[in-house]
Sequence to fold (44 residues):
Amino acid sequence: MSDESSKCFVCGATSEDRVLLKAEEKGEEKLVCVRCLPPLIHGA
Fold:
């Protein structure tokens, strides 16, 4: 992943800021941080 794609796709946090987890959306690999993950799970 490039530097730009090594950030949370929701808020832009890097692994220096928070833990990042790999996710896939429409066949595209993305990263999401632990702060943004709950709203994605719960549909908020």
